[in-house]
Design brief:
Blueprint: E1 7-8, E2 10-13, H1 31-44, E3 48-51, E4 53-54, E5 61-62, H2 65-68, H3 72-78, E6 82-86, H4 95-105, E7 109-113, E8 117-118, H5 136-142, E9 147-148, H6 152-163, E10 168-173, H7 176-187, E11 195-201, H8 211-225, E12 230-236, H9 241-250, E13 254-257, E14 264-266, E15 269-270, H10 274-287, E16 291-292, H11 295-302
Parallel strand pairs: 1-16, 2-3, 2-13, 3-6, 6-7, 7-10, 10-11, 11-12, 12-13
Antiparallel strand pairs: 4-5, 8-9, 14-15
Helix pairs in contact: 1-3, 1-10, 7-8
């Protein structure tokens, strides 16, 4: 039975690195727009803000700490939301580049992909009528021959280093095997509860966006970890966003939305801001009688160290 008395964490992934500006004129990529959209999303109800950086001139993903510094401290100064810095970056970045700003910021939370994988949006290239910037077409088409790397050693080194910072993780699990990878790190003592498992469905290269697959991910996590030791969350890619995250909430989980995951608000209608998606899922959750978690609630549920202990 669904517990409607529990609190649901809304995460908002503001810009990401997979979508390119030509996919939506509303995708934020300069620091001022990322800042404004992140703050509005937090005001709309997002307790966690998942952040990437992009080149201010043409929107390409960048690992530059200097660019992160142009918007992350301002977001932190104007909202109490949990700041979650990506360690995924993009498939074009080295591991050292992907970790550069997180090492400086030592945030409350980072994202962490739980394995190496094919990760691609390349079929979208054939449907694009035009490109806004000259780097985009090669970037999207090139995903067909790219691998996102996170080996066991990579993950071990990240967990070991960031344990010293007191940073906890949004464990991004794109398939069932990633849950078993997480279980391995639990077994060797590098990960301790409460875990925050982000079940990512609908990315080409990962588990498909079938509702049955959410049951598989949830049941597998329950079996590996025990339901009382972790927080489950759902990320539905593209057109699957709202239906699958709603299903995830009904299954006892939390939700993630944002223009990183889908540039649409509904069929054929682009989201003009991240906050539009946050407000939509909040309305759905309200109608289902769920209580929305505040940033303080999220910190308590996930065992976070608190804003005072970061270097944003």
């Amino acid at each position: 039975m669904t517990d409607t008395n529990r609190k649901v964490i809304i995460t908002c992934a503001v810009t990401g690195s997979a979508h390119v500006p030509s996919m939506s004129e509303y995708l934020p990529f300069n620091p001022a727009d990322i800042e404004a959209q992140a703050i509005e999303a937090a005001q709309a109800g997002a307790a966690i803000l998942h952040l990437h950086a992009r080149d201010p001139d043409d929107g390409r993903p960048t690992p530059s700490p200097e660019v992160f510094r142009q918007f992350v401290p301002a977001i932190a100064a104007q909202t109490d939301a949990v700041i979650n810095i990506s360690t995924g970056g993009s498939t074009r970045m080295t591991l050292e580049e992907r970790l550069a700003y997180a090492r400086i910021a030592k945030p409350e939370m980072c994202s962490l992909n739980m394995g190496s994988m094919n990760f691609s949006l390349h079929p979208i290239a054939a449907r694009m009528p035009s490109w806004r910037f000259d780097w985009e077409k090669a970037y999207v088409e090139g995903m067909e021959d790219m691998i996102f790397r996170n080996t066991f050693r990579d993950i071990k080194n990240i967990l070991t280093e960031f344990r010293d910072y007191g940073t906890r993780f949004e464990f991004e699990c794109y398939d069932v095997g990633h849950l078993y990878n997480l279980a391995y790190f639990v077994d060797i003592g590098l990960v301790k509860p409460p875990f925050f498992i982000q079940s990512v469905v609908g990315i080409l290269g990962g588990i498909g966006a079938d509702p049955e697959n959410l049951n598989v991910m949830r049941a597998t996590a329950d079996r590996l970890f025990g339901r009382d030791r972790y927080q489950f969350s759902v990320l539905g890619a593209g057109r699957h966003q709202m239906s699958l995250v709603t299903m995830g909430a009904i299954m006892g989980g939390n939700v993630r939305v944002g223009l990183e995951d889908s540039v649409y608000l509904s069929k054929g209608v682009k989201a003009k801001t991240n906050a539009e998606q946050v407000r939509k899922i909040r309305r759905i959750l309200d109608e289902l009688s769920f209580e929305i978690a505040t940033p303080a609630d999220a910190r308590d549920m996930l065992g976070l160290k608190g804003r005072d202990n970061v270097s944003l």
